[in-house]
Amino acid sequence: MSQHQILNPADHAQLRIHTEAGAEFGDNVMASLAMPAEFREVQAHYPIVFRRDAETGKLAALALFGFEAGENLFLNGSTWEARYRPMAHAVQPFLIGRAAEEGAPPQVHVDMGHARVSATGEGMRVFDDTGTATPYLEAVANMLGDLDYSWHESDAFFTALETYELVEPFSLEVTLDNGSVQTLVGFQTIHEERLSALDGDALAALMAEGHLARIYMVLASLAQFGGLVARKNRRIALG
User: Fold this and answer.
1) InterPro entries, alphabetically (predicted)?
2) Could you list the residue range(s) of the whole structural domain that residue 228 is in?
3) Domain count within the chain
């Protein structure tokens, strides 16, 4: 259960965080939110797909790690077999919080109920003996700042996709080496025919806002499905 607290040296002087990979630390997930600002890094390792919120209808982008809930095909024991992890996942158990006062600066919160919070005295310290943020916490704070900015900046990208009707539902069905069929449903991707049919003015507008490059990064990322299937076959073969 989540236990969000405002991070501060008075209450969290001895706080330590497990930074290694592991299912026991919450890495056994099939996907993570991915910000458009990090698509260049994400597409080099993971397929990027879109999901529409059932209540709000808003789009979000996801980096896929597996084909089903609780499956991370990049997780091998205590090793994450990719050079990059999406910010929303890598920054855990920290998150951005906002004070009630209008215009107040964002705050660093920590989820004390997260599995990465150490209860054994092991892990990376957050504050040193003087109560000063450690280099680890400074790096986390920088990532939180990037994540917060990227989250707000992403609205323009998703608005452009909606304006030009550039998303469509897709499904994936793959026959694995053992004969079983792996399916993936409920996601959306770029509608390539509509993208190709855009006129010069529309393409120029998308390019000027930086959206066009990110659209093509999403399309390029779909090639990573081949690697994901190969990982799934290896996982099955190893039992």
Assistant:
1) SapC (IPR010836)
2) 4-237
3) 1
